[in-house]
């Protein structure tokens, strides 16, 4: 089984390789090809992987290349985890929006729209190359904004591309722990778009255990989402929001905290990773990762008075586990239930069949099949429909190169409060990002 990782010089690639090293079952990945446009980063991560493999006799063989077609040839699975413009690009996405007084974040609000505008053309190009060189491969998309990018790629690859994220599993794991349930025994009724979903029920042995948690103020105060949103608001919603909904429900506080932080998250990571790539080793990778995990959403937690992250949340084990579980289920035809980004079909009646949504899916050798879910309440319908509308304008602008359409993408986003702001955002982003220059 051959796995190709696009963005193979990326900082989180050793997490994926660590998960592969622990897999000794039949049908596992035996060959990994890392592809990146940056040969130095490839060499750095290649070195870390070699250190990781040193004590593992049946470690998957690793090769590296900067040639995309060569990387894709013979791949059974392709992980796409690229960052167009690097962390400097992300820092600019965040800084420009915050300077206008609106949210600048990697995937949410104006920052997410700018990132989407830059990333969709690259993702489409990758999808076309996969269709040509490795038409039987399954593509697992981690590239953010993951829902939007998966939808772009699905226009070329259909259901052969599946988007993943670790935030729904993280939420499920935390809630199960508080309820004293084994996450493996629970059915999580989690629905929405990527970074915009709600956990509405946790069924164990035929009973919904979530009402028990909603009634318990102390238990709600004992985990990340409970502390970010507060017991009262969670009870008002009757569901537990994905942590990214903090940017919507507490937008002013989040914007204020982000503006006051001095450096954006992207700028912090840019500087942190420059140090790591300057002298890469497995030890410094561990240390860098630990710092990164400890500071995740620090400004939001400060704004909410939520305190530090819980000890258990500092151990990463999210997205690479989802990716591995997905590959196993497909490669070995072993039924699994995973929350994934797939085309809607008829799952959410508010959206059309081709809209990519994030919902529980049954996975087997034929891919990911979304399961039927209860309808969204009106407040969630509103947000999901508005954000999907903005995403559709991003896809249209990437295709047409039209300025009006790009302005519409910013202006229709619920976290951008004025059309004039949208116009100024586009102009400022085009100055920062040469690849957006054709839009103005
Ligand atoms: C979560 C999200 C990812 C995101 C990651 C890292 O895990 O699901 O989509 O890339 O956080 O965030 P950071 O701010 O540390 O880059
Ligand atoms: Mn994510």
Brief descriptors of the model:
binds manganese (II) ion, 20 helices, 440 residues, alpha/beta, six-stranded parallel β-sheet, binds 6-O-phosphono-alpha-D-glucopyranose, globular, four-stranded antiparallel β-sheet, 13 strands
Which ligands appear in the coordinates? 6-O-phosphono-alpha-D-glucopyranose, manganese (II) ion
Straight-line N-to-C gap? 45 Å
What characterizes the major β-sheet? 6 strands, parallel
- Structural class call reads alpha/beta
Strand content: 15-25%
Describe the structure in your own words.
With 440 residues, the chain is α/β, with parallel strands linked by helices. It has helices at 13-21, 39-53, 68-72, 86-99, 109-133, 146-157, 167-179, 210-214, 217-220, 224-229, 231-237, 246-249, 251-260, 265-278, 282-294, 298-304, 319-331, 378-400, 403-412, 419-432; strands at 2-6, 31-35, 61-65, 77-80, 138-141, 161-163, 186-193, 196-204, 207-208, 240-241, 336-343, 356-364, 367-370. α2 links the parallel β2 and β3. The N and C termini lie far apart (45 Å). The mean pLDDT is 97. Its EC number is 3.2.1.86. Residues 190-416 form the Glycosyl hydrolase family 4 C-terminal domain. One of its GO terms (molecular function) is 6-phospho-beta-glucosidase activity.
